[in-house]
Write a structure and sequence with these properties.
There is one protein chain. This protein is α+β, with helices and mostly antiparallel strands. The chain has two domains: about 5-50 and about 145-330, 2-Layer Sandwich (D-amino Acid Aminotransferase, Chain A, domain 1); about 55-140, Dna Ligase, domain 1. The protein is about 30% helix and about 20% strand. It has helices spanning about 5-10, 15-30, 35-40, 40-50, 65, 70-75, 115-125, 230-245, 275-280, 285-290, 300-310, 325, 330, and strands at about 55-60, 80-85, 95-100, 105, 110, 140, 160-165, 170-175, 195, 205-210, 210-215, 250-260, 260-270. The strands form two sheets. A seven-stranded antiparallel beta sheet has the order 11-10-9-8-7-12-13. α8 packs across α11. It starts with 5 loop residues before the first helix and ends in a 13-residue tail after the last helix.
Length: about 350
């Protein structure tokens, strides 16, 4: 393994974990606001009131006693997702794509019985899938139907879009594509593909898997160099609005494109990871510094998005060594609880 010279990383504007934790998360994220983003149910309820579109909430199971009534709750729905409110890394997410032989068909084709579903919900409530093993609640949401634009790109799971928002300005983004290696989850640590996206246009910049460049999806064979994300300005605006709702200065917003409802916010992350820099072939520091130097920060999300689209257009960098050669994976590796949510809904 080749290790990067720290001065090389600095010249490339790479944001390291320590700098992120101290200079951005520690400085701009008041810890009293963390519960809002660490709990997916709280996030959904609060941002929904602020006008941010989210997957429809079908039900909530809070106690073991309520599990016995879950058949009545699920009866009207053919497709749905059950997930822990405080889960991470895609753990505990059950995706049901239809009914079959009196059971519930998963996205991989397996069929679960009602008893299996009840056991899964019981495990969620007991904290099996939650951060720190805390007792939890189970959220039942409408299933996100992948937009036709991405239908050929991902393996099983719905692609999601991670946007880093700093003081209300979207500064960097990537598309995350599930693979066989990631078990259908948009989780980069498990082997999902990250496609860097130009903030100015929503076009692809580069694509990586396990921190190494690739040109095609490893399972579908789809080319990754012609991706253009539709509804791009709307996605940026939803992410920018989350700053006004949460008051977190440095956050990650995970969004999806639903075939029926368009852009939806899945969840927020107060400790977004750093691999997004590798997918974008560019460091975060120059963009973060550009926002910090602004004399005035607009309260209008639309104005902030316009600024980002004008000033954070990708400019190809052609060093003698590629970005991936100059940056060791350990330089941008996330903590185990960061950048691991990954959607399968």
């Amino acid at each position: 393994m080749t290790w990067a010279n720290p001065f090389t990383l600095t010249r490339r504007g790479v944001l390291g974990m320590n700098s992120r934790n101290v200079e951005y998360i520690g400085r701009y994220n008041d810890r009293r606001h963390y519960p809002l983003v660490d709990n997916k149910l709280e996030t959904k309820l609060v941002v929904g009131k602020a006008g941010v579109t989210v997957p429809e909430l079908l039900g909530v199971v809070r106690t073991q006693h309520e599990i016995e009534l879950i058949d009545d709750v699920l009866e009207p729905f053919q497709q749905f997702v059950i997930k822990p409110a405080q889960g991470s890394g895609g753990r505990g997410i059950l995706v049901v794509t239809g009914r079959e032989d009196g059971g519930f068909r998963k996205s991989n084709g397996d069929v679960l019985s009602l008893r299996d579903v009840k056991r899964h919900v019981s495990n969620i409530l007991s904290g099996l899938h939650s951060l720190g093993g805390r007792t939890d609640v189970a959220i039942i949401e409408d299933l996100v139907i992948c937009d036709d634009t991405f239908a050929y790109l991902s393996h099983e799971g719905v692609p999601d879009i991670r946007l880093i928002v700093f003081r209300g300005y979207p500064v960097m983004g990537m598309l995350r594509l599930a693979t066989t290696a990631s078990d259908g989850k948009a989780n980069l640590h498990q082997g999902a593909v990250g496609v860097g996206l130009d903030i100015g246009t929503g076009r692809n910049i580069a694509a990586v898997q396990f921190d190494r460049p690739i040109s095609h999806h490893p399972d579908t064979g789809a080319p990754l160099d012609e991706i253009v994300v539709p509804h791009w300005r709307q996605l940026l605006t939803l992410a920018a609005l989350c700053y006004d709702v949460t008051h977190l200065g440095y956050l990650g917003a995970d969004l999806v494109l639903d075939q029926r409802r368009g852009p939806l916010l899945l969840e927020l992350n107060a400790r977004p990871g750093l691999t997004i820099q590798i997918a974008n072939n560019e460091g975060l520091v120059p963009r973060l510094s550009r926002v910090e130097l602004l004399e005035e920060h607009s309260r209008d999300p639309g104005v902030r998005v316009e600024f980002a689209m004008q000033h954070f257009v990708h400019e190809p960098y052609r060093p003698q060594r590629s970005f991936w050669e100059s940056v060791s994976p350990s330089d941008t590796q996330e903590d185990t609880q960061e950048d691991t949510q990954g959607s399968t809904s």
